[in-house]
Design brief:
heterodimer, A: 5-stranded antiparallel beta sheet, B: mainly beta, 1 helix, 12 strands, 2% helix, 40% strand
Protein backbone atom coordinates (compact mmCIF):
# COMPACT_ATOMS: atom_id res chain seq x y z
CA UNK A 1 0.00 0.00 0.00
CA UNK A 2 1.35 3.38 -0.99
CA UNK A 3 1.91 6.11 1.56
CA UNK A 4 1.75 9.87 1.39
CA UNK A 5 4.96 11.53 2.49
CA UNK A 6 3.27 13.44 5.31
CA UNK A 7 3.36 12.42 8.93
CA UNK A 8 -0.05 12.43 10.54
CA UNK A 9 -1.23 12.08 14.12
CA UNK A 10 -2.91 8.75 14.74
CA UNK A 11 -6.26 9.33 16.41
CA UNK A 12 -7.65 6.36 18.28
CA UNK A 13 -10.69 7.07 20.41
CA UNK A 14 -9.80 10.48 21.81
CA UNK A 15 -10.08 13.48 19.51
CA UNK A 16 -7.65 16.34 20.12
CA UNK A 17 -8.86 19.80 21.03
CA UNK A 18 -5.94 21.85 19.82
CA UNK A 19 -5.98 25.60 20.50
CA UNK A 20 -7.10 28.07 17.84
CA UNK A 21 -4.39 28.97 15.37
CA UNK A 22 -1.91 26.34 16.51
CA UNK A 23 0.20 24.44 14.00
CA UNK A 24 -0.70 20.74 14.14
CA UNK A 25 -0.55 17.69 11.91
CA UNK A 26 -3.58 16.24 10.23
CA UNK A 27 -5.13 13.19 11.88
CA UNK A 28 -5.51 9.67 10.62
CA UNK A 29 -7.42 6.86 12.25
CA UNK A 30 -5.78 3.60 13.22
CA UNK A 31 -6.25 2.36 9.69
CA UNK A 32 -4.40 5.34 8.21
CA UNK A 33 -7.48 6.97 6.72
CA UNK A 34 -7.26 10.76 6.82
CA UNK A 35 -9.90 12.20 9.13
CA UNK A 36 -11.91 14.80 7.20
CA UNK A 37 -14.92 17.00 7.76
CA UNK A 38 -17.02 18.78 5.20
CA UNK A 39 -16.42 22.53 5.47
CA UNK A 40 -19.35 23.61 3.29
CA UNK A 41 -22.50 21.96 1.92
CA UNK A 42 -21.50 19.81 -1.07
CA UNK A 43 -22.45 22.21 -3.83
CA UNK A 44 -21.42 25.49 -2.21
CA UNK A 45 -17.68 25.55 -3.00
CA UNK A 46 -18.33 25.06 -6.69
CA UNK A 47 -21.35 27.36 -6.85
CA UNK A 48 -19.49 30.23 -5.19
CA UNK A 49 -17.11 30.39 -8.16
CA UNK A 50 -20.00 31.87 -10.10
CA UNK A 51 -20.20 29.41 -12.98
CA UNK A 52 -23.32 27.54 -11.85
CA UNK A 53 -26.65 27.96 -13.57
CA UNK A 54 -30.07 26.53 -14.27
CA UNK A 55 -32.43 26.79 -17.20
CA UNK A 56 -36.15 26.16 -17.05
CA UNK A 57 -37.49 25.20 -20.44
CA UNK A 58 -40.69 26.38 -22.04
CA UNK A 59 -43.82 24.26 -21.88
CA UNK A 60 -43.72 21.38 -24.34
CA UNK A 61 -46.06 18.43 -24.73
CA UNK A 62 -44.55 15.37 -23.00
CA UNK A 63 -44.14 12.09 -24.81
CA UNK A 64 -45.01 8.49 -23.99
CA UNK A 65 -41.96 6.96 -25.67
CA UNK A 66 -38.26 7.69 -25.70
CA UNK A 67 -37.60 10.50 -28.16
CA UNK A 68 -35.37 10.18 -31.18
CA UNK A 69 -34.79 13.46 -32.97
CA UNK A 70 -36.71 16.03 -30.93
CA UNK A 71 -35.72 17.16 -27.47
CA UNK A 72 -37.83 19.25 -25.10
CA UNK A 73 -34.87 21.17 -23.68
CA UNK A 74 -31.29 21.19 -24.95
CA UNK A 75 -28.18 22.73 -23.42
CA UNK A 76 -25.43 23.47 -25.92
CA UNK A 77 -21.85 24.09 -24.80
CA UNK A 78 -20.61 27.04 -26.83
CA UNK A 79 -17.05 26.95 -25.58
CA UNK A 80 -14.24 26.62 -28.10
CA UNK A 81 -12.38 23.29 -28.10
CA UNK A 82 -10.30 23.10 -24.93
CA UNK A 83 -12.69 25.42 -23.12
CA UNK A 84 -14.96 24.81 -20.17
CA UNK A 85 -17.07 21.71 -19.83
CA UNK A 86 -20.60 21.73 -18.46
CA UNK A 87 -21.07 19.38 -15.53
CA UNK A 88 -24.71 18.34 -15.19
CA UNK A 89 -25.66 18.37 -11.51
CA UNK A 90 -29.41 17.71 -11.64
CA UNK A 91 -32.29 17.47 -14.07
CA UNK A 92 -36.04 17.52 -13.70
CA UNK A 93 -39.36 18.45 -15.18
CA UNK A 94 -42.60 20.10 -14.11
CA UNK A 95 -46.13 19.80 -15.47
CA UNK A 96 -46.99 23.31 -16.69
CA UNK A 97 -50.57 22.35 -17.47
CA UNK A 98 -52.44 19.46 -16.00
CA UNK A 99 -52.60 16.25 -17.99
CA UNK A 100 -56.14 15.69 -16.72
CA UNK A 101 -55.17 12.06 -16.19
CA UNK A 102 -53.27 10.02 -13.67
CA UNK A 103 -49.56 10.32 -14.47
CA UNK A 104 -46.29 8.52 -14.30
CA UNK A 105 -43.86 11.44 -14.63
CA UNK A 106 -40.25 10.87 -15.63
CA UNK A 107 -37.33 12.30 -17.57
CA UNK A 108 -35.25 11.06 -20.49
CA UNK A 109 -31.85 12.41 -21.45
CA UNK A 110 -29.31 12.21 -24.23
CA UNK A 111 -25.72 13.43 -24.25
CA UNK A 112 -24.68 13.74 -27.87
CA UNK A 113 -21.64 11.76 -28.89
CA UNK A 114 -21.50 13.05 -32.45
CA UNK A 115 -19.62 16.27 -31.89
CA UNK A 116 -19.24 19.08 -32.70
CA UNK A 117 -22.90 20.08 -32.61
CA UNK A 118 -24.14 23.27 -34.24
CA UNK A 119 -25.53 25.99 -32.02
CA UNK A 120 -29.32 25.66 -31.94
CA UNK A 121 -30.86 28.98 -32.85
CA UNK A 122 -32.75 30.89 -30.18
CA UNK A 123 -32.02 31.11 -26.49
CA UNK A 124 -33.86 30.56 -23.24
CA UNK A 125 -33.06 32.54 -20.10
CA UNK A 126 -30.17 31.03 -18.14
CA UNK A 127 -30.20 31.90 -14.44
CA UNK A 128 -27.35 32.04 -11.95
CA UNK A 129 -27.30 29.89 -8.82
CA UNK A 130 -25.23 32.48 -6.98
CA UNK A 131 -27.39 35.51 -7.63
CA UNK A 132 -25.52 36.90 -10.62
CA UNK A 133 -27.68 39.24 -12.62
CA UNK A 134 -26.58 37.99 -16.02
CA UNK A 135 -25.43 34.77 -17.61
CA UNK A 136 -21.70 34.95 -18.11
CA UNK A 137 -21.04 31.77 -20.06
CA UNK A 138 -21.04 30.79 -23.69
CA UNK A 139 -23.80 28.20 -23.58
CA UNK A 140 -27.18 28.26 -25.17
CA UNK A 141 -30.41 26.57 -24.13
CA UNK A 142 -33.39 26.02 -26.36
CA UNK A 143 -36.70 24.19 -26.28
CA UNK A 144 -37.93 21.76 -28.94
CA UNK A 145 -34.58 21.26 -30.64
CA UNK A 146 -34.10 18.86 -33.52
CA UNK A 147 -31.16 16.82 -32.29
CA UNK A 148 -28.84 14.26 -33.76
CA UNK A 149 -30.10 10.89 -32.64
CA UNK A 150 -27.10 9.13 -31.19
CA UNK A 151 -29.36 6.32 -30.00
CA UNK A 152 -28.37 7.38 -26.53
CA UNK A 153 -31.71 8.47 -25.14
CA UNK A 154 -32.40 6.86 -21.78
CA UNK A 155 -34.58 7.32 -18.72
CA UNK A 156 -33.16 8.97 -15.60
CA UNK A 157 -34.30 8.36 -12.05
CA UNK A 158 -37.46 6.86 -10.67
CA UNK A 159 -40.73 8.13 -12.04
CA UNK A 160 -43.20 9.90 -9.79
CA UNK A 161 -46.58 8.21 -9.78
CA UNK A 162 -49.52 10.56 -9.40
CA UNK A 163 -53.00 9.10 -9.11
CA UNK A 164 -54.56 12.55 -9.12
CA UNK A 165 -55.87 13.76 -12.42
CA UNK A 166 -55.27 17.40 -11.49
CA UNK A 167 -51.49 17.57 -11.57
CA UNK A 168 -50.44 21.06 -12.57
CA UNK A 169 -46.89 21.82 -11.34
CA UNK A 170 -46.27 18.19 -10.45
CA UNK A 171 -42.50 17.90 -10.64
CA UNK A 172 -39.56 15.55 -10.34
CA UNK A 173 -35.90 16.35 -9.85
CA UNK A 174 -33.09 13.85 -10.14
CA UNK A 175 -29.58 14.64 -8.91
CA UNK A 176 -27.01 13.16 -11.29
CA UNK A 177 -23.98 14.47 -9.36
CA UNK A 178 -21.87 15.36 -12.36
CA UNK A 179 -22.39 12.01 -14.06
CA UNK A 180 -22.78 13.74 -17.43
CA UNK A 181 -20.14 16.15 -18.75
CA UNK A 182 -20.97 18.19 -21.83
CA UNK A 183 -17.73 18.89 -23.70
CA UNK A 184 -17.15 22.06 -25.71
CA UNK A 185 -19.39 22.04 -28.78
CA UNK A 186 -21.43 19.21 -27.26
CA UNK A 187 -25.09 19.12 -26.34
CA UNK A 188 -27.20 17.59 -23.57
CA UNK A 189 -30.94 17.17 -24.03
CA UNK A 190 -33.98 16.32 -21.95
CA UNK A 191 -37.50 15.14 -22.66
CA UNK A 192 -40.46 14.67 -20.35
CA UNK A 193 -41.82 11.13 -20.28
CA UNK A 194 -45.37 10.32 -19.22
CA UNK A 195 -47.70 7.38 -19.57
CA UNK A 196 -50.46 9.54 -21.06
CA UNK A 197 -49.18 12.14 -23.46
CA UNK A 198 -51.31 15.07 -22.37
CA UNK A 199 -50.74 18.47 -20.84
CA UNK A 200 -47.42 20.31 -21.12
CA UNK A 201 -44.19 20.16 -19.15
CA UNK A 202 -41.14 22.33 -18.54
CA UNK A 203 -37.84 20.45 -18.15
CA UNK A 204 -35.03 21.96 -16.09
CA UNK A 205 -31.23 21.50 -16.05
CA UNK A 206 -28.80 22.54 -13.29
CA UNK A 207 -25.13 22.67 -14.27
CA UNK A 208 -21.65 23.98 -13.44
CA UNK A 209 -19.24 25.40 -16.02
CA UNK A 210 -15.76 24.15 -15.17
CA UNK A 211 -12.39 23.95 -16.91
CA UNK A 212 -11.58 20.24 -17.09
CA UNK A 213 -9.07 18.08 -18.88
CA UNK A 214 -11.21 15.53 -20.66
CA UNK A 215 -9.95 12.12 -21.58
CA UNK B 1 -3.14 -2.30 8.88
CA UNK B 2 -3.64 -0.98 12.40
CA UNK B 3 -1.46 1.63 14.08
CA UNK B 4 -1.40 2.41 17.79
CA UNK B 5 -3.06 5.62 18.93
CA UNK B 6 -0.89 8.72 19.43
CA UNK B 7 1.73 7.40 17.03
CA UNK B 8 2.86 9.28 13.94
CA UNK B 9 2.32 7.67 10.60
CA UNK B 10 1.67 8.58 7.02
CA UNK B 11 -1.86 8.67 5.67
CA UNK B 12 -2.64 5.84 3.31
CA UNK B 13 -3.25 6.06 -0.38
CA UNK B 14 -4.73 3.49 -2.68
CA UNK B 15 -2.68 2.24 -5.63
CA UNK B 16 -4.29 4.91 -7.82
CA UNK B 17 -2.76 7.65 -5.65
CA UNK B 18 -6.00 8.68 -3.99
CA UNK B 19 -5.95 9.58 -0.31
CA UNK B 20 -8.14 7.34 1.83
CA UNK B 21 -10.36 9.34 4.14
CA UNK B 22 -12.81 8.73 6.94
CA UNK B 23 -15.55 11.24 7.58
CA UNK B 24 -15.08 12.45 11.15
CA UNK B 25 -18.43 14.17 11.60
CA UNK B 26 -21.82 14.07 9.87
CA UNK B 27 -21.79 16.28 6.77
CA UNK B 28 -23.35 19.42 8.22
CA UNK B 29 -21.75 19.38 11.66
CA UNK B 30 -18.47 21.14 10.91
CA UNK B 31 -20.19 24.12 9.33
CA UNK B 32 -23.05 24.24 11.79
CA UNK B 33 -20.76 24.24 14.83
CA UNK B 34 -19.60 27.76 13.94
CA UNK B 35 -22.98 28.99 15.11
CA UNK B 36 -24.13 30.75 11.96
CA UNK B 37 -26.65 28.15 10.81
CA UNK B 38 -30.34 28.87 11.06
CA UNK B 39 -33.86 27.71 10.32
CA UNK B 40 -37.06 29.61 9.76
CA UNK B 41 -40.65 28.55 9.44
CA UNK B 42 -43.06 31.13 8.11
CA UNK B 43 -46.56 32.04 8.99
CA UNK B 44 -49.50 30.29 7.39
CA UNK B 45 -49.76 31.19 3.76
CA UNK B 46 -51.94 30.45 0.80
CA UNK B 47 -50.60 28.26 -1.98
CA UNK B 48 -51.04 29.16 -5.60
CA UNK B 49 -52.80 27.08 -8.15
CA UNK B 50 -50.56 28.26 -10.93
CA UNK B 51 -46.86 28.65 -11.60
CA UNK B 52 -44.96 30.91 -11.29
CA UNK B 53 -46.14 32.72 -8.16
CA UNK B 54 -47.27 36.27 -8.72
CA UNK B 55 -48.68 37.51 -5.43
CA UNK B 56 -47.61 36.82 -1.88
CA UNK B 57 -45.05 34.11 -1.27
CA UNK B 58 -44.63 31.88 1.77
CA UNK B 59 -41.14 33.12 2.60
CA UNK B 60 -38.88 35.83 1.31
CA UNK B 61 -35.29 36.00 2.54
CA UNK B 62 -33.11 39.06 1.99
CA UNK B 63 -29.36 39.10 2.52
CA UNK B 64 -29.08 42.47 4.25
CA UNK B 65 -25.39 42.10 5.02
CA UNK B 66 -22.83 44.64 3.76
CA UNK B 67 -21.18 44.45 0.36
CA UNK B 68 -18.45 41.81 0.43
CA UNK B 69 -20.04 40.44 3.58
CA UNK B 70 -21.27 36.90 4.28
CA UNK B 71 -23.42 35.01 1.83
CA UNK B 72 -26.45 32.90 2.64
CA UNK B 73 -25.87 29.28 1.63
CA UNK B 74 -29.22 27.51 1.33
CA UNK B 75 -28.98 23.94 2.60
CA UNK B 76 -32.61 22.78 2.44
CA UNK B 77 -36.16 23.99 1.94
CA UNK B 78 -39.51 22.55 2.87
CA UNK B 79 -43.24 23.11 3.01
CA UNK B 80 -46.01 21.57 5.08
CA UNK B 81 -49.77 21.75 5.29
CA UNK B 82 -51.04 22.49 8.76
CA UNK B 83 -54.74 22.91 8.18
CA UNK B 84 -57.47 21.12 6.34
CA UNK B 85 -58.81 22.81 3.26
CA UNK B 86 -62.44 23.81 3.21
CA UNK B 87 -63.19 20.91 0.92
CA UNK B 88 -60.77 18.04 1.55
CA UNK B 89 -59.42 16.70 -1.69
CA UNK B 90 -56.52 14.68 -2.94
CA UNK B 91 -53.77 16.96 -4.09
CA UNK B 92 -50.30 17.48 -5.44
CA UNK B 93 -48.23 19.84 -3.29
CA UNK B 94 -45.30 21.53 -5.00
CA UNK B 95 -42.48 23.72 -3.75
CA UNK B 96 -40.94 26.51 -5.83
CA UNK B 97 -37.91 28.69 -5.17
CA UNK B 98 -36.45 31.82 -6.75
CA UNK B 99 -33.08 33.50 -6.43
CA UNK B 100 -32.47 37.08 -7.45
CA UNK B 101 -29.43 39.31 -7.42
CA UNK B 102 -29.62 42.88 -6.25
CA UNK B 103 -31.22 45.02 -8.90
CA UNK B 104 -28.88 47.42 -10.64
CA UNK B 105 -28.60 50.70 -8.83
CA UNK B 106 -31.50 52.96 -9.66
CA UNK B 107 -33.67 50.10 -10.93
CA UNK B 108 -35.23 49.18 -7.63
CA UNK B 109 -34.26 48.10 -4.19
CA UNK B 110 -34.02 44.79 -2.43
CA UNK B 111 -34.37 46.43 0.96
CA UNK B 112 -37.16 44.94 3.05
CA UNK B 113 -40.08 47.30 3.47
CA UNK B 114 -39.89 49.25 6.71
CA UNK B 115 -42.10 47.83 9.40
CA UNK B 116 -42.20 44.43 7.73
CA UNK B 117 -42.79 41.68 10.28
CA UNK B 118 -39.86 39.32 10.33
CA UNK B 119 -40.21 35.62 10.95
CA UNK B 120 -38.47 34.05 13.92
CA UNK B 121 -35.10 32.68 12.88
CA UNK B 122 -33.91 29.91 15.13
CA UNK B 123 -30.39 28.64 15.62
CA UNK B 124 -29.27 25.18 14.60
CA UNK B 125 -26.81 25.17 17.50
CA UNK B 126 -29.14 26.34 20.23
CA UNK B 127 -28.12 29.99 20.26
CA UNK B 128 -30.63 32.14 22.01
CA UNK B 129 -30.86 35.06 19.64
CA UNK B 130 -30.54 35.59 15.93
CA UNK B 131 -27.50 37.68 14.99
CA UNK B 132 -27.18 37.17 11.30
CA UNK B 133 -27.70 38.88 7.97
CA UNK B 134 -30.98 37.30 6.84
CA UNK B 135 -34.21 39.28 7.00
CA UNK B 136 -36.96 36.74 6.47
CA UNK B 137 -40.60 37.59 6.11
CA UNK B 138 -43.54 35.25 5.84
CA UNK B 139 -46.45 35.84 3.48
CA UNK B 140 -44.48 38.59 1.76
CA UNK B 141 -45.45 40.29 -1.46
CA UNK B 142 -43.16 39.77 -4.43
CA UNK B 143 -43.19 43.54 -4.93
CA UNK B 144 -41.31 43.39 -8.17
CA UNK B 145 -38.17 42.10 -6.44
CA UNK B 146 -38.41 38.76 -8.19
CA UNK B 147 -39.12 38.23 -11.85
CA UNK B 148 -41.25 35.37 -13.08
CA UNK B 149 -38.31 33.75 -14.84
CA UNK B 150 -36.41 33.39 -11.54
CA UNK B 151 -38.86 30.75 -10.32
CA UNK B 152 -38.63 27.00 -10.68
CA UNK B 153 -40.13 23.99 -8.94
CA UNK B 154 -37.77 21.85 -6.85
CA UNK B 155 -40.05 19.09 -5.65
CA UNK B 156 -43.53 17.62 -5.41
CA UNK B 157 -45.37 15.33 -3.09
CA UNK B 158 -48.48 13.48 -4.19
CA UNK B 159 -51.33 12.73 -1.83
CA UNK B 160 -54.25 10.61 -2.97
CA UNK B 161 -55.98 10.97 0.42
CA UNK B 162 -58.64 13.56 0.90
CA UNK B 163 -57.23 14.45 4.33
CA UNK B 164 -54.00 16.30 3.56
CA UNK B 165 -53.16 17.46 7.08
CA UNK B 166 -49.37 17.29 7.64
CA UNK B 167 -48.66 16.69 4.00
CA UNK B 168 -45.09 17.91 3.69
CA UNK B 169 -42.13 18.08 1.38
CA UNK B 170 -38.48 18.43 2.33
CA UNK B 171 -35.91 19.20 -0.35
CA UNK B 172 -32.20 19.23 0.48
CA UNK B 173 -30.42 21.48 -2.00
CA UNK B 174 -26.93 21.06 -0.49
CA UNK B 175 -25.77 24.65 -0.90
CA UNK B 176 -26.86 24.88 -4.51
CA UNK B 177 -28.26 28.38 -3.98
CA UNK B 178 -25.98 31.14 -2.69
CA UNK B 179 -27.64 34.45 -1.85
CA UNK B 180 -25.04 37.23 -2.11
CA UNK B 181 -25.30 40.50 -0.18
CA UNK B 182 -28.30 42.37 -1.53
CA UNK B 183 -29.81 39.22 -3.02
CA UNK B 184 -33.16 37.60 -2.35
CA UNK B 185 -34.23 33.99 -2.02
CA UNK B 186 -37.95 33.24 -2.06
CA UNK B 187 -40.02 30.12 -1.52
CA UNK B 188 -43.59 29.34 -2.35
CA UNK B 189 -46.00 26.44 -2.67
CA UNK B 190 -48.54 25.50 -5.25
CA UNK B 191 -51.29 22.94 -5.23
CA UNK B 192 -52.93 21.16 -8.09
CA UNK B 193 -56.50 22.20 -7.24
CA UNK B 194 -57.90 25.59 -6.44
CA UNK B 195 -60.05 24.39 -3.60
CA UNK B 196 -57.09 24.34 -1.23
CA UNK B 197 -56.89 28.10 -1.19
CA UNK B 198 -57.84 28.17 2.46
CA UNK B 199 -55.07 25.81 3.52
CA UNK B 200 -52.50 26.81 6.05
CA UNK B 201 -49.24 26.11 4.25
CA UNK B 202 -45.92 26.89 5.90
CA UNK B 203 -42.54 27.34 4.26
CA UNK B 204 -39.21 26.43 5.81
CA UNK B 205 -35.60 27.28 4.96
CA UNK B 206 -32.41 25.91 6.49
CA UNK B 207 -29.28 27.97 5.77
CA UNK B 208 -25.71 28.78 6.73
CA UNK B 209 -24.18 32.26 6.76
CA UNK B 210 -20.64 32.06 5.44
CA UNK B 211 -17.97 34.51 4.38
CA UNK B 212 -17.09 33.25 0.91
CA UNK B 213 -14.07 34.36 -1.09
CA UNK B 214 -14.94 36.83 -3.79
CA UNK B 215 -13.80 34.72 -6.70
CA UNK B 216 -16.54 36.08 -8.93
CA UNK B 217 -17.49 39.26 -7.17
CA UNK B 218 -19.75 37.30 -4.84
CA UNK B 219 -19.54 39.98 -2.19
CA UNK B 220 -20.80 42.79 -4.36
CA UNK B 221 -24.23 41.40 -4.92
CA UNK B 222 -24.44 43.11 -8.31
CA UNK B 223 -22.44 42.08 -11.29
Amino acid sequence: MAKINVLAFVRGLLTPNWPEGSDNPVCVNNRGDVCVVQALPPAAELVRLGGSYFCLGTAVAPVAALPTTTSHLSLWNGEAPGGKSYIIDAVGTMMATSAAAALNLGVAAQLNTTNPIANPAGALAIKSLSGKANYGGKGNAKASVTVTNDSAWHEIGTQLICANTANITLSVEFPVYGRYIVPPQGMFSLATLVNAAAGTAQPIIFWHEVQLTLG
Amino acid sequence: MRTASYARRSPQMNPRGEVCTGQSLPPDSELTRFGNSWHVIGTAGTPDLFFPPSGSVLLKCWNIGPDYGPSIVVDAVGIRVNALPTTPVATVLNISVALRARWPLGAGSNTPASGLALATRTSLTGRKQYRGIAAVSGAAAINGHISSSDWHVVGSVVCANTNILHLQKYVPVYGRYIVPPGGIFALHASMSLGTESGSGVFGQIWWHEVQLPNASGMGRGQY
